[in-house]
Amino acid sequence: MNLTNKSLSMRGKIKSLLLVMIVLLTSTSVFSQIKEADIRELAQNGSEQEILMESSTLTAEGYLYYAEILIDKLIILKPESSNYNYRKGYLMLEIRKDYVGAIPYFEKAILDTDHNFDMFSTKETSAPPDAFFHLASAHHLNEDIDKAEEYYLGFKAVSKKKSELLPVVELRLKQLAVARIKMADPVNVYLKNIGSEINTDMPEYSPVVSLDGSALYFTSRRAWAKGETDEFKDPRINQYPEDVYVSYRDFDSSWTTPIKLEFCQPRRNEATIAISSDERKIYLYEDSTGNGDIYFTDFYHAKFQDITRLEFKDVNTEDWETHCMMSNDKNTFYFVSDRKGGFGGRDIYMLRRIDGTEEWSKPINLGPQINGPNDEDSPFISIDNQTLYYSTNGEKSIGGFDIMTAYFENDSAFTEGTNLGYPFNSTNDDIFYTTTLDGRKGYLTSFRKDGYGEKDIYEIYNDYLGVRDVAVLRGLIKTVDDKPIPEDFAINVRLVCVDCEEGSRKKLVYPRLRDGVFMTSLDPCRTYKLEYMNVSDDVVMHEDAFTTLCDTNYQEIYRELLLDVDKRIIIIPEDTLDLDTVVVTDYPNLEFMHYFAYNKNKLTTKRGELKDFVQAVEAQLEEGRSSITINIYSSASYVPTKTYGTNEKLTQIRAENMKYDLIAYFEKNEDFKGKVNVVIVTTIVQGPEYEKDSRNKEKYFPYQYVGLKTE
Length: 711
What we know:
Layout (H helix, E strand, L loop, with lengths): L9 H14 L4 H5 L3 H10 L2 H14 L2 H14 L4 H15 L2 H11 L20 H12 L3 H14 L7 H19 L4 E5 L10 E6 L5 E6 L22 E6 L10 E2 L10 E5 L5 E6 L6 E8 L2 E2 L3 E2 L11 E6 L5 E6 L9 E6 L11 E2 L10 E6 L5 E6 L9 E8 L3 E2 L3 E2 L10 E6 L5 E6 L9 E7 L7 E10 L9 E8 L9 E4 L7 E6 L4 E8 L4 E9 L6 E11 L4 E3 L10 E3 L6 E5 L12 H15 L5 E9 L10 H21 L8 E10 L11 H4 L4 E6 L1
Parallel strand pairs: 23-29, 33-34
Antiparallel strand pairs: 1-22, 2-3, 3-4, 4-5, 6-7, 7-8, 8-9, 8-10, 11-12, 12-13, 13-14, 15-16, 16-17, 17-18, 17-19, 20-21, 21-22, 23-26, 24-25, 24-27, 27-28, 29-30, 29-31, 32-35, 33-35
């Protein structure tokens, strides 16, 4: 039936639309034919009963975006109705997670609740008792622990004993207890929204950062530039299909405009899961089979190919597989599934390579140290092949999904997962955490008050996490005449170990084709031999060797080489063969934060905490740190500035003054010249809207600052 047939009268259209919805409630195909214009026409001209029936039906079928259009009209008709206010608050939470905006609606809803709530009657003025639960949830998401507890307990008092929400309330109350502890003792992290170049008013999530931090792959539901995805918007939530994008770090540490990858199709959902260290393979989640499975795409012939369903035995099943991660040594494959036999909802499993062959074990559940009665997801294993990050929404969370960490010990099992703390985690969903080489910088998905859309990507620095007992081979391949690197060029990394069980273990390491960078993990206290070769003909062009140190948690071995593609000749600069190229980087990142009074913009390195900061940088350089980058983060509030004209100019001046002073400070010392790189990362204007209350110092003070962070 064409619901927009112009031969129907306006009233007839409304009745026909209503009839279709009531009779064919279970037909998704019918709903796919609904046009937003028809819904808006019903909202404009339908009776209260027609609008109520339609909104109830749409809500029950999951077409929440359309339902909210109709509820908005009902709120206009009866703004004090507990019934209608409950519906509005519920839809705001479900569609956009707008917990702040939903609170006033739920506050009206709980004024009149009734167990015998009739969702199809215009005479119904009450809300269901569930309104207490949703009000508690909104306060929970808003990090108002006391009010969340009050309304969770209020729901327990008024709900029926058989309510399906009661077990959820018991879990939430336990999470609130964890939140009180974690929020009272916050961890020392620097967390920031990575900004509007990547985040939009649409959801952005599932970030996967390259090991050196130069590329960020992520998922977005933004529209395609030429409208190709417009007809494939999900009518239930009014969002575009998922697509995969990549952004690269520019020379000034800013993120470039994201590029949509070649395999994305306008009608299909593709979501990032993981990338290989050489960025030649991307693992993806795709749900066209109905249950959701793991896919992959390979990069060759200068582009990513169309996605292929992963054929690892026993990974993809008739159940729900949502995430995966291959360890850097390629000996362990982690994945997530809600298959039977687990500890709860979604569990994390692993496959282990059998004795260096191409065969894999059966799936192994990571056990009760990691998996619980709720959901675990988004495993990420660091380059040391020991440090596991994942997310859980169970009793250890402070709300929603929280990021946890655990360590693989004695080649047998993981330690019990521990919460990374607040504000690393919020009371909302915090998930999809991936890190760079040393584990001190990472990226996650969260929904916080400073966000641009439903989900945003955040960058986070810490000085208390990191990899353990690992060496890293890192290098750069350049070519004569800047010719493309052959796709079959690789470095064969051989472990030379006569007296140990590993014998002469080896692995192929491929460079990134976009820039020639290569990286892989090594074991400490071992001797390695490198063979530079074309894999297709197994011809070794050059060899060299080195020994990793034994007494450090983290070290890097750097190699730089020039490849003559035509002659198949390798040239390696002599200075990169010296064992002094082993770089030990056990230096903690340093932080500094200063909050300005109105219009103030300059500090001095001669006194105070900034003096302490630059002296700490000096100390690391004197101890042997070869170079250091200082990132600058500057902010201004929305309080108007007559002195500088705009707040954008004020925050820029704050950052530039700091950059000039730091460069001048370190460049005047011959020992430090050229070793300190100062980069302006952000110059933003943020905070609450100005309401002609400039005397309210506490309101605007947190948004007038300059921050420093080393890496």
